[in-house]
Design goal:
The strands form 4 sheets. Strands 1, 2, 4, 7, 8, 10, 11 and 13 form an 8-stranded mixed beta sheet that branches. Strands 3, 5, 6, 9, 12 and 14 form a 6-stranded antiparallel beta sheet that branches. Strands 15, 17, 18, 21, 24 and 26 form a 6-stranded antiparallel beta sheet that branches. The longest helix has 12 residues. Helix 4 packs antiparallel against helix 5. The protein has 5 helices and 26 strands. The termini are far apart. A hairpin with a 4-residue loop joins strand 17 and strand 18. It has 3 domains: about 170 residues, Jelly Rolls (Sandwich); about 150 residues, Jelly Rolls; about 45 residues, no CATH class. The chain is mainly beta.
Length: about 400
């Protein structure tokens, strides 16, 4: 693909190579036009769009193109890093738009030259960035060898998404090691996921029937689905989790909307369990609710499984949606007391009576404060009543 490198930035990059590189700790900012001249600007779609990174006011600004998507790089001056040392890299971006539906798409990269080809390591990616203020975000990087490195900001936003600003990188030696690589083995109970890293999100399976799907929000550190103009059927499915027959489980999670100003922004969220990370394998629907709040509210789901094995929890958004996002965060699964349906910490005749009333339709399912479907078949019936009675008799 044809690329245009602004001459001023190219000359600055060449000059930097001849100078001593910055040593850590260091702030690579754009305080003035002279500082901006030391950064490399690469316009990868120059034949389609004249827009690219330019100096703003103590920052770099990409002005939106109403007709073409962005494909523009901003690469820092050189910094000297030591192999095997973990560095914390703070970066500051802002979305400049009056419309909440506008989103920026960017990635943060690192490489050993100020070129697109050399920016081989992706440190962060966000395809729905919308912060209206410059806010610090942090990634970690452990180079395999000592040498000169360059940090990159690659903007690839859709057309007509507002302006994007970048302020600075701050590089320091980290007091903590880099995040571990995802564990390829099955998870165990208790299970917890707070999406503190992109790597954690990457362990989840996403399925979609539209161009958009669940993505990782590095700004909010959670999973988000950024709506669509047409009806959707999108899934976010956990990694494999080892569970056992006869045990009762409680899953809690937080969810909320980006914008709840009107009913068009509401989203119907379903939770299911199944023996596989596919839509077809999610055979037991456990919970559903029309999410109507912009507050991140904690929800609780009780369940069991029919046999010992590996299971996956599914989060599904289905139906009409707006372009505003829904978030899922802080997923926790713990074992609870099997048969304790009223949440008093004991299994007794009061639990039997409660379940009988639910089975007969005299009490709503929402009255249950524990796992009533003890055989994991997705229904509350007489077999579950018998199971609770047997638990009492075995005491």
């Amino acid at each position: 693909m044809y690329k245009r490198v602004f001459p001023l930035a190219l000359m600055a990059a060449m000059a930097i190579c001849a100078q001593a590189q910055e040593a850590v700790p260091v702030t690579l900012d754009i305080a003035d036009e002279a500082a901006f001249a030391s950064w490399t600007v690469i316009d990868q779609n120059a034949t389609e769009s004249p827009n690219s990174w330019a100096y703003g006011a103590a920052d770099a600004i990409y002005s939106e193109d109403k007709d073409h998507a962005a494909n523009d790089w901003l690469i820092s001056p050189a910094v000297q890093l030591e192999g095997g040392v973990t560095y914390a890299i703070d970066y500051y971006l802002v979305q400049k738009s009056f419309f909440f539906s506008d989103k920026q798409k960017y990635e943060i990269t690192v490489g050993m030259a100020p070129t697109v080809e050399a920016q081989v390591t992706q440190l962060a990616i966000d395809e729905s960035f919308s912060s209206k203020l410059y806010t610090k975000q942090t990634v970690k990087f452990t180079p395999s060898e000592s040498g000169t490195y360059y940090l990159g900001v690659h903007l690839f936003s859709d057309k007509y998404q507002g302006d994007c600003g970048f302020q600075k990188f701050v590089v320091s030696q980290s007091t903590e090691p880099a995040d571990d690589q995802p564990d390829d083995g099955p998870k165990t109970i208790p299970y917890s996921e707070d999406f503190s890293t992109r790597e954690a999100f990457d362990e989840f399976t996403t399925i979609t029937n539209v161009s958009r799907s669940w993505t990782y929000s590095s700004y909010n550190q959670c999973a988000e689905f950024w709506g669509a103009a047409s009806p959707v059927d999108v899934w976010l499915i956990t990694p494999d989790i080892d569970m056992q027959q006869g045990k009762a489980y409680k899953m809690t999670f937080r969810t909320g909307l980006e914008n709840a100003v009107n009913a068009a922004s509401y989203k119907h969220l379903y939770v299911s369990v199944g023996a596989g990370a596919s839509a077809q394998a999610q055979t037991v629907e456990l919970w559903d609710e029309l999410i109507q709040s912009a507050l991140m509210e904690r929800k609780t789901v009780y369940f069991s499984v029919p046999t010992d094995g590996l299971y996956n929890m599914g989060f599904r958004v289905q139906g009409e949606t707006s372009v505003y996002a829904i978030f899922v965060d802080e997923i926790d699964i713990v074992e609870t007391i099997a048969g304790d349906l009223n949440g008093d910490g004991a299994v007794d005749v009061s639990d039997v009576n409660l379940l009988i009333n639910v089975v007969l339709g005299k009490s709503p399912v929402s009255d249950l404060k524990g796992t009533a479907d003890l055989n994991g078949d997705g229904a509350h019936d007489v077999s579950d009543v018998n199971a609770v009675i047997n638990i009492i008799l075995r005491k």
